[in-house]
Design a protein that fits this description.
The protein is an alpha/beta fold and 183 residues long. 29% of the residues lie in helices and 29% in strands. Strands 3-2-1-4-5-8-7-6 form an 8-stranded mixed sheet. The longest helix has 15 residues.
Length: 183
């Protein structure tokens, strides 16, 4: 697995061993970041269910100002820290060992321009995550949430001030783009 574009394009990332972590494919990451190009520069990013950290590190490579990574799996967080160290971006990152929903529920006065939400495909609390982000003001106005699900999974189009802007299917993967609209 490699960083696709930007400053660190082509650099290798260490993957989490085993089958519990499913990294976003290079094809899907390229499609996501092509869509996000106008909003990435100097953004504050939250990478929930970080896994290898590939989405957040790709954002840093393309000009994000800072990325916070959240994962509950110790092995995954060890890999995230190793990838951060190997890219030399320690000062632009923060790593949290926490359940993503608990992290959001306890988020204090912190908001983000871009949030990646990429839980395991069998995860069933997407709505809770989106509602928490909306009600706690965790996404800044005009911010974007990128949600990765199985192509068979369905979400509703509005969660309070979060409005579905578009979806894209890539084989077994579906990408949902929610935007923060209004107050």
């Amino acid at each position: 697995m490699r960083i696709i574009g930007g400053e660190f394009g082509g650099r290798k990332l260490t993957a989490v061993p085993g089958i519990k972590t499913r990294p976003t494919s290079a094809r899907v990451r390229e499609a996501i970041f092509s869509t996000l190009l106008p909003v990435i520069k100097q953004s504050l990013v939250l990478d929930l269910f970080a896994g290898t950290g590939a989405l957040g590190l790709e954002a840093l490579s393309r000009g994000a100002a800072k990325v916070e990574f959240v994962d509950f799996n110790s092995a995954a967080l060890e890999i995230v820290r190793r990838n951060i160290q190997n890219l030399g971006v320690v000062e632009k990152t923060k790593v949290h060992k926490n359940d993503s929903l608990s992290f959001l529920q306890n988020c204090q006065e912190q908001s983000y321009d871009l949030i990646f939400l990429d839980p395991p495909y069998l995860y069933s609390y997407y709505e809770d995550l989106l509602k928490t982000i909306a009600t706690k003001g965790i996404l800044r106005k005009n911010g974007i949430i990128v949600v990765e699900t199985s192509s068979k999974y369905e979400l509703i189009g509005v969660y309070f001030n979060l409005v579905l802007a578009k979806t894209r299917n890539y084989g077994d993967t579906k990408i949902w783009y929610f935007e923060h609209k209004g107050e």
